[in-house]
Write a structure and sequence with these properties.
Elements: H1 2-33, H2 39-49, H3 58-68, H4 79-88, H5 99-123, H6 131-139, H7 152-166, H8 168-172, H9 179-187, H10 218-226, H11 231-252
Helix pairs in contact: 1-4, 2-3, 3-7, 3-9, 4-5, 6-7
Length: 255
């Protein structure tokens, strides 16, 4: 068990690293293509994305999942989104010949989880689980990071919220929420600003220094090249070309 705990703590580092990136990418993609149309959906959107690793209302978040499931389905996943989600889930993403490969692994993971969820919900098995069993169940659904050291009651609350998010149709009709929204909901537990290592001053830097030369015409680039670090080599090469031309011209002059 101790080795398993250490392994999962190492996996949590990947989750903390890639979950915020996946949430940001998904939020941009959904926000750009499908703006919430009513106050109810707007509130659900805020519950999913506006909060960090604090409790969100699962019923309200499920409303947003229902809306987006109508026109942004999992098969519309971008390759970039698949990479970020795969890395956040601890799935190797290289080599990835097509987004179908990573999409299949993600889909299989959640289908297995949902099959287990159905048995747990219908049998209320989570209420009788030991602390270790409940932690294992919650961790595999991104609900309980090991470093938080949540109590049994806190984990049980997150599990119950997760079951609420799955919705009544999950048991009655076998209809699960949108995978995008499901992963955004559960990975919010790993959206912890304390793990950010970037400096906000980096945003003030110019990201396009390497493209400055593209804005100069050929004459200016030639001058910079001839007067740059390779100046001596350019001078020697130029003198050699001049001497070759002079010798060729003299050879063509009739005696």
């Amino acid at each position: 068990p101790e080795e398993l705990k250490q392994w999962r703590q190492a996996q949590d580092l990947y989750r903390y690293k890639w979950a915020p990136a996946y949430l940001t990418e998904t939020r941009w993609f959904f926000d750009h293509h499908a703006t919430p149309m009513t106050a109810k959906f707007e509130r659900g959107w805020e519950e999913l994305f506006e909060k960090n690793d604090i409790r969100r209302d699962p019923a309200v978040a499920r409303d947003a999942a229902e809306m987006y499931d109508r026109f942004i389905t999992f098969r519309d996943m971008k390759r970039k989104t698949g990479r970020l989600l795969g890395r956040a889930m601890g799935i190797p993403t290289f080599p990835m010949w097509a987004k179908m490969c990573i999409g299949t692994r993600i889909k299989d993971y959640w289908e297995l989880a949902w099959n287990e969820d159905y048995m747990v919900i219908t049998g209320k098995l989570h209420e009788s689980m030991t602390e270790e069993e409940l932690q294992d169940y919650a961790w595999r659904r991104f609900l309980s990071p090991y470093d938080k050291e949540l109590t049994h009651e806190q984990i049980l609350e997150r599990v119950n919220d997760y079951h609420t998010f799955l919705g009544p149709k999950f048991v009655e009709e076998g209809k699960a929420p949108n995978i995008f929204m499901t992963t955004c909901y559960v990975m919010g537990n790993y959206n912890d600003p304390a793990y950010l290592i970037e400096d906000i001053a980096e945003l003030e830097k110019n990201d396009y220094d390497h493209l400055q030369s593209w804005g100069k015409d050929a004459f200016l680039r030639r001058l910079e090249f001839e007067n740059g670090p390779l100046r001596d080599q350019v001078e020697a090469h130029s003198q050699k070309l001049i001497e070759e031309r002079k010798a060729k011209a003299e050879a063509q002059v009739p005696q």
